[in-house]
Design goal:
Blueprint (H helix, E strand, L loop, with lengths): L2 H12 L17 H10 L3 E6 L9 H6 L4 E6 L5 E4 L13 H10 L6
Amino acid sequence: MPRMLRDIIETAIRSQPDMIVVGVMGVVGAGDALSDAVQRDKPDVVILGIEADAGPRACEALLYDHPHVRLLEVTDDGRGATLCELRPHRVPIGDVSAEGLVGAIRASGIEAS
């Protein structure tokens, strides 16, 4: 993430009375150093700069290793951001017929392979 973009985000967060910045890391890969920092500091949210074409969930491993963390991915050009999190998602299904169950699966966006 470019330093100027990182400074803008950090300033915005520090100005919030209910948020605390627990650490700022420079250029770090999405590997062991980041995971170790998350384990040590126990943040609620990790803000991570990613390449604009990195695709969805560039750091799934971080989420699986630390399921309590929400990951805010900000593109390096500052034009996009995605909030990623692992959480239970439950949708009650009123119609438990075969057609109702198939309809619920289709509505969830899961594609058959």
